Amino acid sequence: MAMSRNVSEAVRQRNLGTLLRLVHVGGPASRSTLARRMGLNRSTIMALTGELTSAGLISEDRPHVSGRAGRPSIVVRPSCDRVYVLAFDVAVDRLVAARVGLGGIVLDRRVAVRRRAGADLDDVVSVLASFGRSLHAAAPADAVCAGVGASYCGMVRPDDGMVHFAPDMGWVDQAFGTSLSDALGLGLPVVVGNEAHLGARAEHLRGAGVGFKNLVYLHGDVGVGGGIIVDGRLLDGEAGYGCELGHIVLNPVGGRACNCGSHGCLEAEVGERALLDLAGRPSSLYGRSAVRSVVDAAASGEDAACRALREVGDWLGIGVANLINLFNPGVVIFGGMLRDVYPSCAEQVQARIANNVLAVSREVRLCVSALGDDACLVGASELAFAGLIANPLPR
Amino acid sequence: MAMSRNVSEAVRQRNLGTLLRLVHVGGPASRSTLARRMGLNRSTIMALTGELTSAGLISEDRPHVSGRAGRPSIVVRPSCDRVYVLAFDVAVDRLVAARVGLGGIVLDRRVAVRRRAGADLDDVVSVLASFGRSLHAAAPADAVCAGVGASYCGMVRPDDGMVHFAPDMGWVDQAFGTSLSDALGLGLPVVVGNEAHLGARAEHLRGAGVGFKNLVYLHGDVGVGGGIIVDGRLLDGEAGYGCELGHIVLNPVGGRACNCGSHGCLEAEVGERALLDLAGRPSSLYGRSAVRSVVDAAASGEDAACRALREVGDWLGIGVANLINLFNPGVVIFGGMLRDVYPSCAEQVQARIANNVLAVSREVRLCVSALGDDACLVGASELAFAGLIANPLPR
C-alpha cells in the first residue's frame, strides 16, 4: 500500500513537471493538446493544471475567437511575468545579465562591453551582481525568482560552478558560482555551465536544433568550444569535461600552435587568430568586429581575405566531417563568431563532408545558430529553470 | 482507477525486467542484495522472484554453508541451462556461432576459419545456419531459445539487420538478418549489429568497461571500427550510423589512402595494412597472424617492426587523444587486432595523450579488451537477450 502511494505521488510529480516543461518549451497549448501529448485523459490534465495554476506557475483561459464549431479548449500559458530567473553570460568581450520569464522570454537585460585584459573575478562578479540586483528590483512586486544560472567561457566543474580553466580569461580554479551567489545576496545558488554546452542546449530546445535528437554545436569565441547533444542529452563524459571539440587535432604535422600547448587543434586552425593571421591582419586586431571585417573584405573580393576564409573553411570542414562520422548528428550548428565565418566558407565545409563523411551519415543539416548572440544566455536561463521544471510543487 | 492499474502493471513489468537483468549481468545474488539494489522491500522481491521462477527464468536456493549467524538469504540464479540464445559473429577471417545461456555463459560453440575472398551472403548464411541448427539440436530438450543475435563486420541498418556497406566483405545492401532467420528455420528474427558497437556493449556489461558510464572501444579488424558508450548507452546518432571513428581524418596532408576513398583516416594510419606496409612486409601477407608476427619481431628487436609500431602508435595516440577530448571517457578499450598492437605502442599513445588531451580529461584508463575474441559474440548474445530482459513475462 505504501508503495502504491509512493508510486502515485512520483507519477504525479513527473506529470506536473512534464506539463510545465511542455508549455515552458513549446509555448501556450490547449488542454486537449496537452492531454494528447502526455497520453492522459482530460480530467487528469485538469487536475494537474489546477495545481499549477494555484501555484501561479501557469494561467488558463478560453480563447476569445474560434472559427470552429464546438467549445474551444482552454489554453494553458506559462506565467512569464510572474515566474522568472536571472541569467548571466560571461564572454571574453562582454558581460550580459537578463531576467528571463517562464516560457523562455527575455524580459529585461543589461550589457557591459569589455576590453579583454584584466578581467579578474572580483570585477566580473561585481558588474554582474549589480546588473542582477537591478534586474531583480525592476521585476513586478508579485514576481518570483525561481533560480539563477550563468554561462561562462571556460571549463566549469559541473558540481559547484568552479571555473576550472579559462585560458582566454586567465582564470584558474576560481569559485565563480559561489562568489556571484554571495554578491547577489538573493539567497539563491548560481548554477554555472560552459558557454558552448549551454549554447547547444538552448539551440536544441529553442533554436536550430529543435526536432533533432543528435546535434553538434560549435561555438567560436577567442577559442572554439562545443556542445554535443547525444540522444537528446548533453554529452558530458565521465567527469563533465566532454565536448572539447576545439582541441581535436586535425593537423599534427606542421599545424598552428594552440593555446592549449598542442599543435594543429581545430581551434588553432579555425579560430579568430588563424583567420586574422591568414588574412594578413596585424596582431593588434582582435575580436568579433575584426572577424567581421575579414568576412566583409572577402565579400568585396579582397584576395587575402578570400584565401584566409577558404583555408579556414577547409580545416573547419575536416573537423566537422570528423564530428559527423562520430556522432551522425541531424544538424551541425555554428555559433558565436562562427556564425559570421561559416556562411563565407560553406562551400569548403561541404566539399570536405562530401569527401570524408561516409555516405550513410551525409544527411545532415548545416546552419548558423538561430538564437544568435543569445544562445548561451538562453542556455543559462534553462539551467536556472531546471530545478523548478524537475519539481514544480515540492512537498 | 484504470490509470492506477496500468501504472502498477507497468511498474511490475519494469521491476521484473530490472531483477532479471541484475542476475543476468551481475550473476547470482541474494534476495536481500536484490532488495537493496532495487530499493524494494523483501516481500515485493519475493513476489517478483516467484513469478520469474515459475516461468523458468531463474532458480532460487538456500546456500548450503554459512559462516555467519542467522538464516542465510535465498540466492537467485539465472537459469543458464534452460534459457539460451544463439549468437553469431561474422568477421572477415572467421565465422563463429554459439549457444549462450542466460547469465551470459557461452555453453557451446562452432567456429569456421575462412579465406578472405569470395565470402558471399549465401555461403556465410549457409555455414551459420548449419552451425545454429546443430547448436539448437544439442541443447537440452527442456531448454528454450529466447532469441537470435548476430555481429557483423560492416555497417548495419539498425531497423532490419540489412548490411548497408561492408567494404572488407564486398557486401552492399544485403538482407543478412532475414536470410539467416529464414535459413535457421526457428521462427525467430535475427537481430544484427555492427561488430564494434556490440563489442563496446559487451565490454561495458561484462568486460573492461564495467563500472564506467562512458567508454570508447576501438575494434581493429581489416579496418578499424568503434563503439562508444555515452552515459551508459551506445551512441548511435540520428540514423544509427554514429561511432565511425575509423574514418576520422587525422592526417589530411599527405596521409595514406583509405578504403573509404578519403586520405589520412585513423583506419588508414593504424589499420592492418598500414602496420604491415610500414614494417616492410609484402602485400601478399595479411590477417591477424601477420600482425602478430610484426609485434613479435618488434619484441625481438627488429628495427623495421619497431619503427612501424612507433609510427602506428603515434597516429593511434592522436586518434585516441581526440576521442578523449570529445568523450571524456573513463576507459578506452582496444579490441580485435588492436589487442595485439596497443601493448607494443602504449608509450606513443600515452605520450600523445599527455600532449594533446586537456588536463581535466587525462584521468582515463587504457586497456585491451577483457573479453578478447569473444567481445563481439557476447555483444550479439546481449542483443538476442534484450527482448526477454525488457519484458520477461509478456501478458
UniProtKB/TrEMBL annotation, chains A, B:
Signal peptide: none annotated. It comes from the Bacteria. The keyword Lyase does not apply. Coiled coil: none annotated. Keywords: Kinase, Transferase. GO terms for molecular function: kinase activity. InterPro entries: ATPase_NBD (IPR043129), ROK (IPR000600), WH-like_DNA-bd_sf (IPR036388), WH_DNA-bd_sf (IPR036390). Belongs to the ROK (NagC/XylR) family. This is Sugar kinase.
